[in-house]
């Protein structure tokens, strides 16, 4: 009898499962049924309903009320070691008790009321009781808007940003306050009746001609339609119209923020934690952003805790740690206070906007891949499980002939939710939400996020319960619970199967990037073909190097080196693949030009960059503070600046950093990350050295 290799056996067991739709090798049918039967989008929706009662702006009275609701709900859910963690915070607490604005002529009209629409009063508005004329200042954000208009002692009506109007009208010209009809939409006419959530500065800082510390006053927020109506009223009157504004607000309380922590304790491994995150603070209503994520975490915690307690699933090997946080603030502060913590974490899974009624506004549930500076097996597990739930809840034309359930083969649906399909996909790395606090090099925890986009309702009065679909809540909760459970329960004997899968998916990704490299070469102008060749070849090299690092990420899960043979074989295949893809790229170049490609001679910039090596400076806490001061040149995407700093690891030269980041941008597409140039990369590195975030050695 011929002996079959372990790798061949693994592929035999993996490939049939991977070849069928609605399946994942990381989520068995039995476990999927168990999770779907227990996790409830309707329960999650009820948590969203409760959280929309609180105007939970950064940490004021209602923020702490929401914290307490989450804490008590986590305890009721059966989670372990639930507690509120209070942290230092450099912001100002703000709470509004009441606020109204009335236009008095020609007949009284109520313009805004905090009790009706909480975002009608901009954050940090002070207690105010005034009666004054309202005057139109157009946008109100630049000096030109005020030419020939007397605003001292009056209230200004501005189409532009309330904070900018505060600077120009109140601090520089003596106005009493602002009525703003600015919008958080790119085009206000897309949502004419939304009232934007806005914030004015607590006090002046670095405003030319204004003393630092000069307090802000108030800003009333109205919808674009109401703002236009006010503008027409003022134009018809030909003079200011009297207005009253009455606000009761406070900035009392300690300058601190808070987060809620809870656990499902693992039975044996405590330094490979699976961290689930969502953020508490947002405006009142704020159902989807991020009431949906907070609610789903409560429901995931309840479901997993109950399944463990009832013996339907084993207690996981690793800890599952739940963090409800102040967005992009609690985690960095926690890591500064407890610098040993990231080393105990394996992965982080964020949920931010996971309840969208997708048919409203064409929203898609996106899952973030990891940045190229931090490749990990998490990408493949997330994509596989997300794809299984998506495909099980999407209707396919040919499927009608199979006799299987219609319209969805493996339906996940809440009782009170819709029966809409599940539009979901993995995309290149994005930031702007809480997983981004885990992925800087000095933290180094692979973090992914589920976030829907586009969203016409975010940060406005319209992000309310009608926007949320209990069915989509349930689907996303099942995805996150399944990914968390897979890594938390992963046995040492199962890492080999994971390694084989990651290796196979890696080969598919490098093939895709090789096609992108060829397309880049073909699309270049004749005069740019030589440069395009260098960029395409760099993409081929960098994508192979990234996949090699993804395989290396398995070492932590495999202390006994059971996957050594699989990983070694996969790395050998990557080396062969790189040679073959570069050769194919050369052949494409010859076919296009008739000559053999040659890498352009490096110019002085390239030669200088090839001599400089950059390394992080200081400990994690110092680095966290200094990195915030690094400036990027115009035209460089913020995430590419982030990657420049992540790739500066003390071994790469500036030119190697450029090649890595440029390849990542080319892989995603210039429409996604823009264009990366050597000069822009060098500008970031120079700024980082100047602020003390990096050190430079001339090699």
The best one-word shape is globular
Poorly predicted regions are: 1-21
**Total E-strand runs:** 17
Class by helix and strand content?
alpha/beta
Q: What's the end-to-end separation, in Å? A: 58 Å
Would you tell me the overall average pLDDT? 95
Can you summarize the main beta sheet?
Answer: 8 strands, mixed
Describe this structure in words.
With 699 residues, this protein is an alpha/beta fold. It contains 19 helices and 17 strands. It has helices at residues 6-19, 29-38, 41-51, 61-76, 162-171, 224-237, 287-309, 330-337, 378-392, 470-489, 495-523, 529-552, 564-593, 604-609, 620-627, 638-647, 654-668, 670-673, 678-690; strands at residues 80-88, 95-103, 109-113, 128-136, 155-158, 177-180, 219-221, 241-250, 256-264, 269-279, 318-325, 345-351, 364-368, 424-427, 447-453, 612-616, 694-698. It starts with 5 loop residues before the first helix and ends with a strand.
């Amino acid at each position: 009898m011929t002996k079959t290799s372990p790798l061949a056996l693994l592929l035999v067991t993996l490939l049939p499962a991977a070849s069928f739709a609605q399946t994942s090798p990381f989520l068995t049918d039995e476990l999927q049924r168990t999770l779907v039967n227990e996790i409830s989008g309707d329960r999650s929706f009820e948590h969203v309903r409760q959280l929309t009662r609180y105007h939970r702006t950064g940490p004021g009275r209602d923020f702490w009320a929401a914290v307490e609701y989450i804490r008590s709900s986590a305890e009721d859910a059966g989670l372990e070691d639930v507690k509120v963690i209070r942290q230092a915070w450099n912001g100002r607490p703000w709470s509004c008790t009441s606020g109204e604005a009335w236009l008095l002529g020609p007949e009284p009209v109520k313009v805004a009321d905090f009790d009706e629409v909480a975002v009608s009063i901009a954050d940090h508005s002070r207690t105010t009781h005034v009666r004054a004329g309202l005057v139109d200042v157009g946008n109100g954000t630049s000096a030109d808007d005020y030419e020939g208009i007397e605003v001292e002692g009056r209230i200004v009506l501005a189409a532009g940003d309330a904070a900018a109007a505060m600077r120009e009208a109140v601090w520089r010209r003596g106005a009493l306050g602002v009525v703003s009809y600015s919008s958080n939409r790119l085009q206000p006419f897309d949502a004419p009746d939304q009232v934007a959530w806005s914030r004015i500065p607590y006090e002046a800082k670095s405003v030319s001609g204004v003393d630092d510390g000069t307090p802000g006053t108030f800003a009333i927020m109205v919808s674009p339609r109401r703002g236009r109506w006010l503008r027409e009223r003022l134009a018809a009157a030909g003079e200011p119209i009297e207005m009253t504004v009455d606000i009761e607000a406070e900035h009392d309380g300690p300058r601190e923020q808070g987060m809620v922590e809870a656990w499902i304790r693992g039975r044996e491994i405590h330094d490979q934690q699976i961290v689930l995150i969502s953020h508490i603070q947002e405006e009142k209503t704020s159902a989807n952003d991020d009431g949906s994520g907070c609610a789903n975490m409560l429901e995931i915690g309840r479901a997993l805790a109950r399944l463990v307690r009832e013996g339907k699933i084993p207690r996981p090997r690793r800890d599952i740690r739940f963090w409800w946080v102040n967005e992009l603030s609690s985690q960095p502060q926690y890591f500064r206070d407890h610098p040993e913590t990231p080393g105990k974490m394996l992965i982080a899974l964020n949920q931010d906007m996971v309840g969208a009624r997708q048919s409203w506004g064409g929203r898609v549930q996106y899952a973030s891949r990891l940045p190229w500076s931090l490749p990990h097996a998490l990408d493949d597990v997330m994509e596989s499980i997300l794809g299984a739930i998506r495909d099980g809840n999407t209707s396919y034309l040919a499927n009608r002939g199979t006799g299987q359930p219609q319209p969805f083969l493996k339906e996940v649906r809440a009782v009170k939710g819709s029966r809409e399909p599940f539009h979901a996909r993995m995309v290149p790395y994005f930031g702007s939400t809480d997983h981004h606090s885990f992925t800087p090099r000095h933290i180094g925890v692979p973090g992914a996020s589920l976030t829907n986009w586009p969203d016409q309702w975010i940060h406005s009065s319209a992000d309310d319960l009608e926007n949320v679909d209990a069915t989509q809540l349930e689907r996303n909760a099942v995805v996150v619970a399944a990914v968390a459970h897979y890594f938390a329960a992963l046995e040492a004997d199962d890492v080999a199967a994971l390694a084989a899968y990651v290796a196979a998916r890696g080969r598919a990704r490098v093939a895709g990037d090789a096609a992108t490299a060829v397309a880049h070469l073909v699309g270049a102008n004749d005069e740019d073909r030589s440069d395009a060749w260098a960029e395409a070849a760099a993409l081929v090299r960098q994508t192979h190097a990234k996949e090699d690092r993804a395989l290396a990420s398995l070492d932590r899960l495999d202390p006994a080196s059971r996957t050594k043979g699989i990983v070694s074989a996969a790395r050998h295949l990557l080396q062969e693949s790189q040679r073959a893809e570069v050769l194919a790229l050369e052949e494409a170049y010859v076919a296009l030009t008739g000559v053999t490609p040659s890498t352009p001679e490096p110019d002085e910039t390239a030669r200088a960059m090839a001599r400089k090596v950059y390394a992080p400076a200081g400990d994690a806490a110092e680095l966290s503070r200094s990195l915030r001061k690094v400036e990027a040149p115009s035209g460089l995407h913020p995430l590419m600046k982030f990657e420049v700093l992540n790739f500066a690891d003390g071994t790469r030269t500036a030119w190697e950093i450029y090649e890595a980041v440029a390849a990542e941008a080319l892989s995603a597409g210039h429409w996604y990350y823009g264009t990366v140039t050597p000069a822009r990369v060098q500008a970031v590195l120079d700024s980082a050295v100047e602020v003390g975030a990096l050190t430079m050695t001339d090699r």
